[in-house]
User: Which sequence fits this backbone?
């Protein structure tokens, strides 16, 4: 049987996504996206109820000064 929690976390790590929030329902994620409290391109992982930022958001060396 597949462990979707590990699969989704591995995918987020591979895509270098930053963990933004934990224990979030889909309704809350949707509300946050509509009110622009999370960056565009963020994803909600249903198996873990976690929100991850856009692809590459965990790359701290490549950020410019305005994003810090």
Assistant:
């Amino acid at each position: 049987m597949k462990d979707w929690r590990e699969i989704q976390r591995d995918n987020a790590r591979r895509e270098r996504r930053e963990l933004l929030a934990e224990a979030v329902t889909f309704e809350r994620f949707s509300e946050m996206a509509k009110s622009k409290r999370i960056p565009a391109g963020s994803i909600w992982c249903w198996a873990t109820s976690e929100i991850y930022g856009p692809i590459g958001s965990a790359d701290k060396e490549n950020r410019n000064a305005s994003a810090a």
Q: What stands out?
A: The chain has one domain: 4-57.
